[in-house]
Amino acid sequence: MIKHLLSAADLDAPTATLVLDTAEEMASLAAREVKKLPTLRGRTVVNLFYEDSTRTRISFEAAAKRLSADVINFSAKGSSVSKGESLKDTALTLQAMGADAVVIRHPASGAPHRLANWVEGSVVNAGDGTHEHPTQALLDAFTMRSRLGRLAGLNVAIVGDVLHSRVARSNVQLLHTLGAKVTLVAPPTLLPVGVRAWPAETCYDLDAVVPDADVVMMLRVQRERMNQAYFPSEREYSRRYGFDVPRMRRLPEHAIVMHPGPMNRGMEIAPEVADSARSTIVEQVANGVSVRMAVLYLLLGGKS
User: Fold this and answer.
1) Domains plus CATH for the chain?
2) Would you indicate the residue range of the signal peptide (predicted)?
3) pTM of the model
């Protein structure tokens, strides 16, 4: 097993499959009366979050606690970071406190890679800028495999604000590694420069890909990262790229609809779709705990 999880590109197919298989074992704990394992007793996991997060931070905290690790939650607000402390000095402080693993979310792309040079423990990237979010890609892959029974050969459409989405980047890489075919669907203004080098096809027409999609993954429109107009209006965006009930009806019978959250209901996804039987949105949150347990277990204490 690798020492750090910084990018979905760190995972070859056997390693990624090992994480998913381990997550399946972790998920079986949910049915037990006592949901804890003693595997990481005596280990310390630090959640180092420089950006606001609900699902990811709580998910990592729950995962570490279910493995009996000690958890330290570090928020940039209310810490010495607000006084100007650098990432390196924060890292050295954590190192001195004996952190065995640091889970970092940071607005700067590449911050986890820098951190990995400064601490002796394992570093897990929980989202860096618009770059990557590898554990989200793992939990998405786990959800697809749980619902559809396989990943190889699936047609996966990733729709919306690809430009600002670290989730899209990690998913394209991981799903390609595991044998799925990915199509990115977005207006030209929301596709990044160099996207043609990605292992995915691109399309500007959502209605063209819906009938053949096994999975439709809707992305949140990240208005907080937009400093200019990327589309004429929210209404126009929703009409062309929002996933509504008529589009859902044109999906194959077995197909599922995903969203990494948080959602802009009524913009990129209709409430009726988000709450439908095809939707895996709540499952993704539950699966996130199992997948992050698997990652921490394999990095810190597990047997490969």
Assistant:
1) 8-131+285-300 (3.40.50.1370), 134-280 (3.40.50.1370)
2) none
3) 0.94
Identify the CA nearest to 140 among candidates 127, 151, 130.
Answer: 151
Q: Is 88 marked active-site?
A: no
* 164 is a catalytic site residue: no
Which of 22, 56, 135, 143 is catalytic? The answer is: 56
Whether the bond into 262 is cis, omega within 30 of 0: yes
What are the tokens at 42?
């005596």
**108-152 pLDDT per residue, tens:** 999 999 999 999 999 999 999 999 999 999 999 999 999 999 999
- Rounded CA-CA distance 62/216 in Å is 28
Give the active site residue among 43, 57, 106, 133.
133
Task: Please pick, among 105, 169, 247, 292, the residue that the annotation labels catalytic.
Answer: 105
Q: Is 55 a catalytic residue?
A: yes
Number of C-beta neighbours around residue 232 at 10 A: 10
Please, are residues 129 and 106 in contact by the beta-carbon 8 Å criterion? yes
- Which residues, 6 or more positions from 287, have their beta carbon under 8 angstroms from its beta carbon? 23, 27, 139, 142, 143, 146
Active site residue 106: no
- Binding region for L-aspartate: 83, 166, 220
Binding site for carbamoyl phosphate, residues?
55-56, 105, 133, 136, 261-262
Is the pLDDT assigned to residue 255 strictly greater than 90? yes
